[in-house]
Specification:
The chain is of the alpha/beta class. The protein contains twelve helices and ten strands. An eight-stranded parallel β-sheet has the order 9-8-7-6-5-4-3-10, covered by helices on one side. It has a two-stranded antiparallel sheet with strand order 1-2.
Length: about 350
């Protein structure tokens, strides 16, 4: 396992993040305590230190398991959790992005994790109600109180995040260092605005569902559709074409399709640390094999081409040769671009 700096910070995290939404049986699936501990042990022994959870996962059991597991060596782990989703249905302020829910949710997460601080706190999902300045000031207060070390944001429009980052910079508040969004070979739409924004602000992208719910392992092509609806975008003509390309490259390399899909996500030009969930030790061990896969430039180009999306306006418009000509006077290819 190698390590990366998380966003524009000095925080060092493993190049894979362990997703723990399936730790606990409260949702009638997932891993029991013994298995959850074994998965974390496998991840830790491989050098992993970055663990992702949320207040809502398995009704809080995920946080409890993580808290108990890391007690022997708390400082080794970089634990990310989230607030926003409800943890009861009797209090109108027990959900959402508001400051009241933020503070109460963090206090409860600290108790479940049995720790004095959260390494990385994400806003989980945008509620379209709370002013972004309320969010940024509240998060900064938590950092100043020592209850949170760093902040991130998930599942929120790019323009709102941009406003928050700019406001934080102006006010001297803590800024987001990580952006969590759905991203995979089957889901590249964040490239339209969210990922360019993350690059601009120096945020690391932590993709959830990097295997598109298992679609990129090829299991649906083998007939294992489970509860997948027939009209799912993970099994339409485009998805089948992308998945088959992943399988073809995997067969060439003698590895599993999942390894190719994960490695592609890790090799993007922007900083990317995929969140890989596991409810079995064998799943964790199998997923970590992606670290040893070497994709060539040709492999990356082939995967990029088959999964390419339309950026829409203004992305595609700005990339037109005629537009570049009138904008740069013929010097576009001679001008150094900012990375």
């Amino acid at each position: 396992m190698k390590y990366k700096l998380l966003g524009n910070s000095g925080l060092k995290v493993s190049e894979l993040c362990l997703g723990t939404m399936g730790f606990g049986k409260e949702w009638n699936w997932g891993a029991d305590k013994e298995t959850s501990f074994a998965v974390m042990e496998s991840f830790t022994n491989a050098g992993g230190n970055f663990i992702d959870t949320a207040n809502r996962y398995t009704d809080g059991t995920s946080e409890k398991y993580i808290g108990e597991f890391m007690q022997a060596n708390r400082d080794h782990f970089v634990v990310a959790t989230k607030y926003s989703l409800h943890d009861n249905l009797t209090n109108v302020n027990a959900s959402g992005n508001n400051r009241k829910n933020m503070m109460r949710s963090v206090e409860l997460s600290l108790k479940r994790l049995n720790t004095d601080f959260i390494d990385l706190l994400y806003l989980h999902i945008w509620d379209n109600l709370t002013p972004i300045d309320e969010v940024m000031r509240g998060l900064d207060d938590l950092v100043r109180q020592g209850k949170v070390n760093y902040i991130g944001i998930s599942d929120t429009p790019a323009w709102i995040i941009s406003k928050g980052q700019t406001l934080a910079e102006l006010m001297g508040w803590s800024k987001f260092i990580a952006l969590q969004v759905e991203y995979s070979l089957l889901q590249r739409t964040p490239e339209r605005d969210l990922i360019p924004m993350a690059k601009h602000f120096g945020m690391t992208v932590t993709p959830w569902a990097p295997l598109a719910g298992g679609a990129l392992t090829g299991k649906y092509l083998r007939g294992d559709k489970g509860r997948l609806p027939d009209n799912s975008k993970r099994l339409n003509e485009r998805a089948v074409s992308i998945t088959q390309t992943v399988i073809d490259i995997a067969n060439q390399l003698g590895v599993a399709a999942a390894h190719v899909a994960l490695k592609w996500t890790m090799m993007q030009e922007f900083a990317s640390i995929p969140i890989v969930g596991a409810t079995k030790v064998t799943q964790m061990e199998e997923n970590m094999k992606c670290l040893d896969v070497n994709l060539t430039k040709e492999h990356i180009e082939k995967l990029n081409d088959v999964s390419k999306i339309e950026l829409g306006f203004p992305g595609d418009f700005l990339n037109e040769e005629g537009v570049k000509m009138v904008t740069f006077g013929g010097f576009y290819d001679k001008i150094e671009k900012r990375k």
